[in-house]
């Protein structure tokens, strides 16, 4: 288990979610998890729910494929048995694998709308921050995620299609009725040389923004979060600033 800080704090779950793929979701999940563990010294768990397992590939210390990630939800495997230390000190990981491709079907069969929330509740005694790297789409899995999260971080590329997808999520939450976790939209892959991106930034001046940068691309080569190899880079500083905003929003719950 992650050692982290001895500071008492209420556990919180942050879902990094988008209706669309290819918007920088994994990059955001990994760097926020690093910030939680290494800047805030929180006991942090990154739970990879995406069958593409990109976060797992970047951070896992165990590269053997177990095909057991779905078994957590069907109760065949106790959730804590799949927790492993990541390559980042203080950050633990529940890795994804290809078995998660059938997760939507399993949730429909089980008909337990808060299964993920119950599992997260059981982990809350061991972790201050649980970060979910979620698969794209509006599915049974995303339903579980939206019920379980205390904050939903949505990466948005500064383009009409990506902004439309974010709007669809917001409308969906309203249509569901009742209380729901607050949404924090974040512009990702921002290229200020492009007029479309500049216009988007000007239209939503309050949204955090993460730049497009070669240092971010280096994450897949080094298999490390930005803070571990380029902490002074503008991109790493942007993620640190985003994490500060996440913590500020959680403290206002």
From TrEMBL:
User: Could you tell me which residue ranges the AAA domain spans?
Assistant: 13-167
Q: Name one Pfam family in it.
A: AAA_31
SUPFAM superfamilies named among the record's database cross-references: P-loop containing nucleoside triphosphate hydrolases
Q: Which PANTHER family match?
A: P-LOOP CONTAINING NUCLEOSIDE TRIPHOSPHATE HYDROLASE, PARA FAMILY PROTEIN CT_582
Give the protein name, as stated in the record: Chromosome partitioning protein ParA
């Amino acid at each position: 288990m992650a050692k982290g800080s001895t500071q008492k704090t209420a556990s919180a779950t942050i879902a990094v979610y988008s209706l669309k793929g290819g918007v920088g979701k994994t990059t955001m999940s990994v760097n926020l998890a690093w910030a939680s563990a290494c800047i805030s010294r929180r006991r942090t768990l990154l739970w990879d729910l995406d069958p593409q397992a990109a976060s797992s590939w970047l951070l896992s210390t165990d590269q053997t494929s177990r095909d057991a990630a779905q078994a957590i939800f069907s109760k065949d495997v106790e959730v804590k048995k799949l927790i492993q230390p990541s390559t980042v000190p203080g950050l633990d990981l529940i890795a994804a694998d290809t078995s998660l491709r059938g997760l939507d079907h399993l949730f429909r069969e089980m008909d337990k709308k808060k299964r993920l929330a119950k599992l997260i509740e059981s982990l809350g005694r061991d972790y201050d921050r649980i970060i979910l790297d979620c698969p794209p789409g509006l599915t049974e899995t995303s339903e579980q995620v939206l019920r379980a999260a205390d904050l939903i971080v949505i990466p948005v590329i500064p383009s009409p299609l990506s902004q439309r997808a974010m709007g669809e999520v917001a409308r969906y939450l309203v249509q569901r009725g009742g209380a729901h976790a607050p949404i924090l939209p974040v512009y990702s892959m921002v290229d200020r040389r492009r007029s479309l991106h500049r216009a988007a930034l000007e239209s939503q001046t309050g949204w955090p923004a993460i730049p497009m940068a070669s240092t971010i691309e280096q994450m897949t080569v080094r298999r490390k979060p930005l803070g571990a190899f380029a902490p002074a880079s503008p991109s790493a500083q942007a993620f640190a600033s985003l994490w500060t905003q996440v913590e500020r929003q959680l403290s206002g719950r």
